[in-house]
Design goal:
Blueprint (H helix, E strand, L loop, with lengths): L3 H12 L6 E6 L11 E2 L5 H9 L4 E4 L6 H6 L7 H4 L2 H5 L6 H9 L11 E6 L9 E6 L1 H14 L14 H13 L3 E3 L3 H6 L7 E6 L3 H13 L1 H7 L1 H12 L1
Parallel strand pairs: 2-3
Antiparallel strand pairs: 1-4, 1-5, 3-4, 5-7, 6-7
Helix pairs in contact: 1-10, 7-10
């Protein structure tokens, strides 16, 4: 049985996160994993719910609560508005120059089947009571690199790849793709989450299936003992600087 408080503390300390990993539960109408400790938050984007969760709150979003139309479509809550589906909305935002480009970005969006879930719960990993469907981590790229390397260890060295349209970084890239494909996915962030949350210019996001948590923690312990401190010590770089100073 995983002790989630210890797991969160270990992950946070080993890779040097400034905020907690977030456990996400994709709930259907019969799912009781979202206990009464989750607070329903209306009028929020999904990325904003994650922001609150990584700062310590436990948030519940229903289909009615979720305001972002793109995320609502990705989670199967309601159809994508025509103004987005045809790509013209992204032209209006100044994200793309051609509506066909925006149309293709949405056409390639991974999404849940309509009506397959009724709500989303997000909470700090330390406070969850059962294994989340997905664990999302936001932080500096160097810190997230070690999580990806831990996952690479778990997968036996098979190369990892990031799937993104630089759009819907938290809902699609970090949540739905890891859930549907049962693998870690990483992203550079997107226009929406950077506009609507406190995600810093020096931060990005990844997500992985909650079922992989225990194996990833074991791999992190391996990295903690040698690879991480050695890399961060920058010995070869210091030696190069010393050499350059002498010549």
């Amino acid at each position: 049985m995983i002790e989630f408080k210890e797991a969160s503390m270990l992950m946070t300390r080993v890779v040097g996160l400034e905020t907690e990993p977030v456990g996400v539960f994709l709930l259907d109408s019969r799912d009781d994993r979202a206990e009464s400790t989750f607070t329903r938050a209306s009028g929020r984007r999904y990325c904003q719910a994650l922001m609150r969760a990584r700062q310590g709150e436990s948030i519940l979003l229903t289909a009615e609560d979720l305001t972002c139309p793109a995320a609502a479509a990705a989670f199967g809550f309601r159809p994508l508005p025509e103004g987005l589906a045809n790509g013209k909305g992204l032209v209006g935002f100044g994200i793309v120059s051609e509506s066909a480009t925006g149309r293709n970005m949405f056409a390639g969006m991974s999404r849940l089947k309509p009506g397959s879930i009724s709500a989303i719960a997000a909470a700090p990993l330390s406070s969850v009571k059962s294994i989340p469907d997905v664990i999302i981590v936001e932080g500096r790229p160097e810190a997230l690199m070690w999580l990806a390397l831990a996952d690479l260890n778990v997968g036996g060295g098979v190369r990892r790849h990031g799937d993104t349209a630089i759009l819907q970084a938290t809902c699609v890239d970090a949540t739905i793709i890891p859930f549907l494909e049962q693998r870690l996915n990483f992203s550079l962030g997107c226009y929406g989450c950077r506009e609507a949350t406190d995600l810093g210019a020096d931060e990005t996001v990844l997500g992985f299936p909650g079922a992989n948590l225990e194996a990833i923690l074991k791999a992190l312990i391996l990295l903690r003992d040698k690879a991480i401190p050695r890399s961060r010590a920058k010995g070869p770089f210091a030696a190069l600087r010393e050499y350059d100073d002498r010549i």
